Design the sequence.
């Protein structure tokens, strides 16, 4: 069923227009790279604070309030440009192992973030300004940083398969 959807998608006028254009794909991929750099860069700042490696004198809530809007905005841009790239050759990407691993890793990064904000964050008022944070917060930062680095590695790998 997914393969049929991919075959339908890449034959839509949108998929064909991006796939056959000399400039649309490279422009979309450049925008994708800029967006993902902002996503991963802003998340890394938060993760390094959680790990106690950066901005140890800043309140975690303050840093989150500054970085989260940027992260979500850039994530929306990465998802839209990524989907358009995908639409241009969907059945190829669907069958591409690094692409599949990247999408699974994006899910894992999302689940880690959701658990952190739903569980660990509940006690933030007790460790907001601490230089060294509780193990649950440090673990969330380490898992997040590791997962996003892997997303970039597998994202880059897509074009080499
Ligand atoms: C914030 C989340 C994302 C990150 C960090 C990310 C990361 C990457 C990276 C590092 C590349 C390689 C770019 C290059 O060096 O040329 C890439 C390419 C790509 N990404 Fe993403 N991506 C994200 C979201 C998505 C989503 C949601 C989709 C699809 C639904 C997607 C689809 C693609 C496609 C199709 C390529 C092009 C591969 C190629 O042919 O070179 N990405 N991504």
Sequence:
């Amino acid at each position: 069923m997914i393969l049929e959807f991919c075959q339908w998608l890449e034959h839509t006028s949108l998929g064909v227009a991006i796939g056959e254009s000399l400039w649309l794909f490279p422009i979309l991929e450049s925008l994708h790279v800029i967006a993902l750099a902002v996503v991963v860069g802003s998340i890394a700042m938060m993760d390094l604070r959680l790990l106690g490696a950066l901005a140890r004198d800043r309140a975690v809530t303050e840093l989150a309030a500054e970085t989260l809007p940027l992260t979500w905005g850039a994530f929306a841009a990465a998802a839209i440009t990524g989907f358009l790239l995908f639409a241009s050759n969907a059945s190829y990407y669907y069958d591409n192992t690094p692409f599949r691993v990247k999408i699974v890793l994006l899910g894992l990064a999302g689940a880690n973030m959701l658990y952190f904000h739903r569980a660990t964050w509940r006690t933030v008022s007790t460790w907001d300004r601490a230089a060294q944070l509780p193990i649950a917060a440090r673990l969330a930062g380490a898992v997040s940083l590791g997962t996003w680095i892997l997303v970039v590695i597998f994202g880059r790998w897509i074009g080499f398969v």
In short: The first helix runs from residue 2 to 10. Residues 29, 32-33, 36, 39-40, 75, 78-79, 82-83, 85-86, 93, 106, 151-152, 155-156, 158-159 surround protoporphyrin IX containing FE (CB under 6 Å).
